[in-house]
Design brief:
By secondary structure, the protein is an alpha/beta fold. It is built from 13 helices and 22 strands. The strands form four sheets. A seven-stranded mixed beta sheet has the order 6-5-4-3-2-1-22. A seven-stranded mixed beta sheet has the order 7-8-9-10-11-20-21, with helices on one face. Strands 14-13-15-12-16-19 form a six-stranded parallel beta sheet, with helices on both faces. Strand 8 and strand 9 form a beta hairpin. Helix 3 packs antiparallel against helix 4 and helix 3 runs antiparallel to helix 7. Zinc ion binds next to loops.
């Protein structure tokens, strides 16, 4: 039995892991490769395996780098089930439709290919089967083989899971992405089960520790207050799923509960995808953590508060420009590689009174990363724009566990797994984490390489 990696091997995108015992073939995630441009041309390549031969596909969570190639599996002849939690299913639909919109735009503008259609996305949705956390699932193959599997809360984004698969007498865990500690709305990452043979573990922050000196809410409050004091515009490029909802929840708490921010400053949520994703959060309060459930009981809505203005269509978005004075704009894309944030950046980056506040990981080659590294002027829609506004960035808001949390999660009070395969991290992060794990646990740790099977 082995696991092969068709993405996220010594890089952070394109998650696609194939567990095979020769007869049963289970794919965990099938995400898109994402470089500086929205999608890379590697997404166009045909799979090195035959989608028709897959027994099942399991989806850890709805980020594009974990679901972006699902429609290509259906196009390639996969006719079985996709398994995921209910929020992941709903969010995946939004993410894939958004990807299609961006691909269509890019195709018109740069002649890049559109990899799948709305029909393909609908076919994916029709093949989804929802799975609740902790409920043991059994797949019986025609040859009489049994595969048992279970989803656990990964605490990474809404609906995210790590997955336990029992096949041919071995227990294998796919971490998906492991969540950061103390994230609002989400429950904490669950403990790893005992007696695990292999864990395929992400390593995004395998070589780093988050600064946990300051509490998340306090950090947000401080940055927003200072941006308001400067008398300008505060731009927050935010990922539409999860980060935006966490921010809205934090803002709601600071304004309504704690009364620490002024109630009359307009806060624009300028992203149709964020607005739709927020509806998915509202649909499933049963997955909230205790604090969010209490908040919901007290306030009736986690994401609605004085000052918030949602901008769904383009006209509403354009009106933001004509709103004078201090304002907060939350808009995608989170790494400034497209989306409505680009229009605001064009308008507001060059004014020293304004603030640009990064709340997420900025990948190599993205505009966000280049601004963070001090590039100025930057090119936006063919114009050279000087970056004179204040730049703020915090890693405490990351959706990923840091090295310390990954070590604690894998250790599980001494019951660490027999083998660990590391994926979903740049080379340096994987290598540092491998050496650290080996010195802590003295076990077999291997960094996944593209298309090279590792024996379970
Ligand atoms: Zn993720």
């Amino acid at each position: 039995m082995d696991i092969s990696f068709y993405g996220a091997a010594r890089e952070v995108t394109g998650s696609c892991n194939l567990l095979s015992d020769g007869k049963v073939k289970i794919l965990v995630d099938c995400g898109a490769f994402q470089g500086g441009d929205f999608l890379e041309n590697r997404n166009e390549h045909t799979f090195a395996f035959d989608p028709k031969e897959l027994t099942a596909v399991m989806v850890t969570h709805s980020h594009l780098d974990h679901v972006g190639r699902l429609p290509l599996l259906v196009k390639g002849g996969f006719s079985g089930y996709f398994y995921a939690t209910p929020p992941t299913v709903d969010l995946t639909r939004l993410i894939l439709l958004d990807a299609l919109e961006v691909m269509t735009y890019n195709s018109r503008k740069f002649g890049t290919p559109i990899l799948y259609s709305e029909i393909d996305i609908n076919n994916v949705m029709a093949q989804f089967k929802t799975v609740e956390y902790h409920e043991e699932q059994i797949i019986k193959t025609v040859s009489g083989q049994e595969i048992k599997f279970k989803f656990y809360d990964a605490g990474h984004i809404f609906g995210s899971a790590f997955i336990e698969i029992n096949l041919s007498g071995k227990k294998i865990i796919f971490s998906g992405d492991v969540g950061n500690a103390e994230v609002p709305i989400l429950r904490e990452t669950e403990k790893l089960p005992n007696d695990v043979d292999v864990v395929v573990c992400e390593s995004t922050y395998g070589d780093r520790l988050h600064n946990v000196q300051n509490k998340r809410q306090e950090v947000i409050e401080k940055i927003i207050k200072s941006a308001i004091d400067r008398g300008g515009v505060l731009m927050i490029p935010a990922f539409s799923v999860e980060r935006t909802q966490e921010l809205l929840y934090n803002l709601n708490d600071l304004i309504q509960h704690k009364k620490l921010l002024p109630r009359d400053i307009p806060i624009f949520l300028d992203s149709p995808l964020s607005i739709d994703a927020t509806e998915v959060f509202r649909r499933y309060p049963k997955y909230y953590d205790e604090e969010a459930i209490k908040f919901l009981q007290a306030e009736n809505d986690l994401f609605e508060f004085p000052g918030l203005r949602v901008c769904y269509n383009k006209e509403e978005s354009k009106k933001i420009n004509s709103t004078p004075g201090v304002k907060i704009i939350i808009a995608g894309a989170g790494m400034m590689n497209g989306g409505r944030i680009m229009h605001h950046a064009l308008r507001y980056l060059s004014d020293f009174r304004n603030t640009l506040f990064f709340v997420g990981y900025q990948a190599n080659n993205t505009l966000g990363r280049r601004i963070l590294e001090g590039e100025s002027p930057v090119d936006i829609f063919g114009e050279k724009i000087s970056v004179r506004c204040k730049i703020e960035a915090v890693s405490i808001l990351s959706a990923h566990a840091d090295q310390k949390k990954i070590l604690e999660w894998l250790n599980n009070s001494g019951h660490h797994p027999k083998k660990i395969f590391l994926n979903h991290g740049e080379s340096q992060a994987c290598d540092v984490l491998r050496d650290k794990l080996f010195s802590e646990f003295q076990i077999d740790v291997t960094v996944a390489e593209y298309e090279i099977p590792l024996e379970v």
